[in-house]
Amino acid sequence: MTNSNTIHPERKRRVAQALRLFSIAAWVTGVWLLVLVTRMILDYGLHMDIPTWARYIGQVHGFFYMLYLVATLNLGTKARWEPAKWVVTALAGTIPFLSFFVENWRRKEVTKEFQLDQ
């Protein structure tokens, strides 16, 4: 853990910015994943006819997931995460609801470690 005497203000600023981007990306990815799961249940599970535009939901989620991975890489690099934390965080965008929980955990961890609330 880092203490306030060793955290340079510029590093705190960069970590805070990376955390904001990560939080936004995690929420957007999570919401689109839920939309995708709903679309798949309606289409494949309930055999409902879906509009043509809904067939692009998977591609939209995939695009946002790529942005989520970049945001994870950005934050993980600046916060100097260990490999296991990177993997769990990256996979969170592929499991419904998990991105919301992991975003909350990482936000609390990073805020505390870098004392961003002060």
UniProtKB/TrEMBL annotation:
<dbReference type="Pfam" id="PF12823">
    <property type="entry name" value="DUF3817"/>
</dbReference>
<keyword id="KW-0472">Membrane</keyword>
<keyword id="KW-0812">Transmembrane</keyword>
<dbReference type="GO" id="GO:0005886">
    <property type="term" value="C:plasma membrane"/>
</dbReference>
<keyword id="KW-1133">Transmembrane helix</keyword>
<keyword id="KW-1003">Cell membrane</keyword>
<feature type="transmembrane region" description="Helical">
    <location>
        <begin position="21"/>
        <end position="41"/>
    </location>
</feature>
<dbReference type="InterPro" id="IPR023845">
    <property type="entry name" value="DUF3817_TM"/>
</dbReference>
<feature type="transmembrane region" description="Helical">
    <location>
        <begin position="53"/>
        <end position="71"/>
    </location>
</feature>
<feature type="domain" description="DUF3817">
    <location>
        <begin position="19"/>
        <end position="108"/>
    </location>
</feature>
<protein>
    <recommendedName>
        <fullName>DUF3817 domain-containing protein</fullName>
    </recommendedName>
</protein>
